[in-house]
Amino acid sequence: MLPQPWSEDATKLSEIRIRCHKLAKGHAEGQALVSKDPICFYLVEPKTGVVREGGHQLEGKSVSGKVLVFPTGKASSAVQMDGLVKLLINKNAPNAMIVTDVDPVLLGSAVLTKIPLVDRLETNPFEAINSGDLVKVDADRGLVIVTKN
Amino acid sequence: MELLVAIGEAFDAQRMIPIERSHVASSGQEGDLYFVEILAQGGASCKVITTTNPIADFDFFQQYIAAEQDEASVAWKTKNYYERIGAVMSLSCIPYLAENIPEYGEHVAFSESSATPYVNSVIGALTNRESIQTALAAGVLGETPEYGLHLKENRKGTTLVKVEANLNDGFAYSLLGQYVGKKIASGIPVFTGITKRPRIDQYISLCAMLNVTGAIPMFHIPGITVEARSEEDAFSGDEPRERITVTDLELGQTRDELQTAAGPVSVVIVGCPHYNLDQMADLAKLVKGKKVREDVSFWVNTSATTKLMADRAGHTRTIQESGIRLVVDTCIDMFCWNHLRDRTGMTDSPKCAYYRRFGPVKVGAMAECVAAAME
User: Fold this and answer.
1) Distance between B128 CA and the closest CA of chain A, angstroms
2) What pLDDT digit, counting tens, does each position of B273-286 carry?
């Protein structure tokens, strides 16, 4: 089957704009990766960005350059920052993060690593966003723009 | 300050409030070094008492420094920067028992997985679930944004956890924390069905695991912990948003989740979080007159303060005579354990197994660890 020709209007129509609340400033975009499980970045392999936590919904998948959609952070107070900094050093950090329940440990780590983080989307992000969608997160303007895949 | 303001704004805090003390869960790894280095080089110093987590006893583990140079040097630099900014080098993950004890009703900033829920729930001090960096910034500034658990209305229970399991030892409390942390992820659980007051080490095990599989800054046990006289009081009259029940079946399944080994063990590591004096006494009693098998290396981690008392009580001698190596100031997640990585390990700490530095692993109560390692 031939690919459908997309007009510019059609592209715009396929965009979903969702208002949100800024947690950590900045803007970035990337392919969405959705996880119903909370994430601990210390259990992500720094050299590949692949989640190595056994039994995790994202086990074996890479967070590198993605816009991560997940409920909240988890695990000890040291490990989110250590995990994210190790990922940044290896250029495998996520580009932006969308959460539904904010955890101060994750928030502090996002502020310091300058990864945009938002919550309180006016539409449930688990319904509006699927893995593979193109997602722009503009924390400063309080806006998430989703282009469906 | 920028960090704390960003956090305060994100949580709609109205103002900054003074804190009495801070505990930094220093990890001696890259993220930790990044921030403490910026503060130390900028000339910052701690305004209120600020204690640190264990990093490593570099003298004791000298022989492993060369082989693990990258990791060891990050840890060494981090430790030095904490000294430079005037932190109290408690090098303990249970500082709330000795080196840095909050008072009921005090506003504090305590990071570290067991410390945050312990000081909120058992002591009744007020802290949010801090990261290393937010706790350190608060220690330097002597202030924290007023949001979350610093406000009374946010300290009520959210989730009813009906405990029907047998909680016979600290390990059972670890499994309870592991299961509940994973099941509810966030919120403030209210445990009913716990009729016997937990021992301090049992509280610690529960607290630590709630923040390994989840992000749980506080809990209530009605009639036992300080801010809940009754179940109704724990929820401030509200209905729980979720109810779960925990039986021995769930705890058994939880234990199996982290087991990756069968057969004989060749490494045992206990003391994550650091053993307190009661646990040192228990261990001494269990190993008295026994010997660690020649093909097993057995390690116990504790704080320097606890060791001092264990020395005086005779526990240190009994433990060391059995062939167990006693370590202070050290976290299980450090370069000095890498040489054990490929061996089959056992621990009484699911947290240690979760962030494990050894290969295949078994988890079991202290007595089971001793039985697996002793002749």
Assistant:
1) 8
2) 999 999 999 999 99
Q: 């979903």: which residue's tokens?
A: A16
- Count how many domains chain A has: 1
**Residue B128 in contact with partner chain A when CB distance is under 8 A:** yes
CB–CB contact A82 B7 (8 Å)? no
Quick check: B139 contacting A, CB < 8 Å? no
Residue A23 amino acid letter:
L
Say whether both B130 and B166 belong to one domain.
no
Domain that holds residue A46: 15-147
Give the relative orientation of helices B2-10 and B132-141 as an angle to the nearest 10 degrees. 110
Is A58 domain-assigned?
Answer: yes
Supply the ipTM of this predicted assembly.
0.86
Interchain pair B131, A71: CB under 8 A: no
Number of folded domains that form chain B: 3
Pairing of strands B242-246, B159-163: parallel
Per-residue pLDDT of B54-104, as tens digits, reads 999 999 999 999 999 999 999 999 999 999 999 999 999 999 999 999 999
Q: For residue A35, is it within any domain?
A: yes
Same domain as B310, residue B177:
no
* A23 is a domain residue: yes
CB A49 within 8 A of CB A80: no
Residues in A closer than 8 angstroms to B129, CB to CB, are: 77, 103-105
Q: In this predicted model, which residue has the larger pLDDT, B342 or A87? A: A87
* CA distance from start to end of chain B: 56
Instruction: Determine the Cα–Cα distance for residues B200 and B279; give it in Å rounded to an integer.
Output: 10
B301's tokens? 């981690």
Q: Say yes or no to pLDDT of B357 above 80.
A: no
Helix axes of B170-184 and B248-258: crossing angle, nearest 10 degrees: 90
Q: Could you list the active site residues of A?
A: 76
Select the residue from B96, B112, B132, B218 to test the A interface by mutation, using most A Cβ atoms within 10 A: B132
Q: How big is the A-B interface in CB pairs under 8 Å?
A: 124
**Boundary of a domain, candidates B123, B152, B181:** B152
CATH number at residue B270: 3.30.499.10
Note whether B111 contacts A: Cβ–Cβ < 8 A. yes
